Task: structure prediction
Amino acid sequence: MPNFQLVRRKFQTSGITHAIFLSLPVTLFAVFYIYPIISTFNLSLHSWDGFSPTPRFVGLQNYIVLLHQPRFYHALLNNISWLIFLLLGPTGLGLLLAALLDRGMRGEAVFRVVFFLPFTIPAVAVAAIWRWMYEPTNGLLTTILQSIGLGGLAQNWLGDPSIVNFALMGSMMWWTTGFAFLVFFAGLRNIPVECIEAARIEGATPWQLFWKVSFPLLWPSTIVVLGMAAVDAMRLFDIVWAMTNGGPAYASEVLATQMYDTAFGRFEMGRASAISVYLLVIAGVIIMPYIYQLAKRVQDSEAE
Amino acid sequence: MNTPTASRKALPFSILIVAAVIFAAPLVVALLTSLKSPSEITRVIALPNELFFQNYAIAYERMGRSFLNSIAITVPSVILSLLVGAISGYPLAYMRGAGGRIVYFFLLTGMLVPFQIVQIPLFFLIRAVGLYDTIPGMWLVHPAYSVPFCTFFMRNFFASVPRSMYEAALIDGCTPAGYFWRLLLPASGSGLAALAIIQSRAIWNDLLFAITLTTSDQAKPVTVTIAGFASSLQVEYGPLMAATLISLLPVMIAYLLFQKAFVRGLLGGAGK
Result:
């Protein structure tokens, strides 16, 4: 016969244990997220080169100056293009490839590995490989265009301000499609066969079958992919930094690379902090619904 | 009976083949380039006349040390981040009431923070505690910034373990901490494995934290070395491609070996 009083006491002490456990992540979060964010906000109200003993308080001047800089708007606009591109491009292609492969294709395992492999590569490696692909005279892209008689279409892919962003997005597509593909592929596998069979017996065409049955059931996977795409668009740094450094003439700059250049290239810590705060606010507005979805799913699963 | 099915599959199959060729091409070209001598390198599509392994020797000489640094940074950081994620996910999976939910939401908001925003204070913080340009500094930084994702992942994984196991263990005289260390953690191998792969990729591939917090050959990981290598004015593509291929190999092999665990992990808590 268990001692119920003892058990009840144990459930009460479990509260203390839980609190002790949670103190570790909460402390790390406070030191490495909260403190730096408050500190960045404070710094954004100052003018400081990172060396002089005291930052000079300038109020909102950094924020106002940025709003008068075309360079800032250009980077912001680039972030928005990247957001749209990342939500649609790799997601769409990943979904297409997953849907095509989801019918017992021959060589399925090989396709799966080939599509997914680029995702495992470090951004700097992707950048190194694609700088070589885009090399204007001997790169693969130019060579292929020349060999099919379209050499006239070859461009200075990373050197032309009007093309550089598309070139970067091309390499990003290659890098990240694998993630969307794999999530959708696994999602399609999770759809019960009966749902598909029932619709097929009703006489649905493959097209209808996909859009009316599979796609709605893929919603959990879609949320994961879109959420990650939005997070990536706001954090975007590595690929741009390693491929173009934001150039030529700031054409491919995004807020993160601009912030980095302003802070550690020009030593304008206050200005750079203001860029960061703008970035955080924009990221918050765009990504908060996703975080809310994630947290809400907890309650759904608890309700079951 | 077979023909209509075959023809209906012909179009998707050919699209997949074209896509696979495009996806594989950059890696194949990188591999071929890494095996060519400088005189052959401009003939990008051709096979190398003879295998020129000297590129790998040059690459190893320039980045061998940082490759070791990457291992020294990644392995402990991954282990620590899993541990922190589990310690954080356990109470959040078992706590009833609003308190746990608020802490959970609070930690999750970390996922929306662009890491650039913390770089300047982080730089001064790490320098102030004497960990600037050291490998142990990265052991601290990587697990700390992994808290939101690892918490999310482990909390969802633990939530899929039946609660009755927890209650039974307490009734049998196990303490809540004892349950975590002796029962829950050993039973969570598959979740920890999946998270380990995700974290290995994130930490091995990181450029931003490494570029801010390391500078010398004694501490900087392979990503920083390659970024420097690639942005020098005279890029030698042969050694660069060799270095690039060496740098991507560990994570790629890990994924190929643990593909299944990874897919399960992606959908793990999320897919259920």
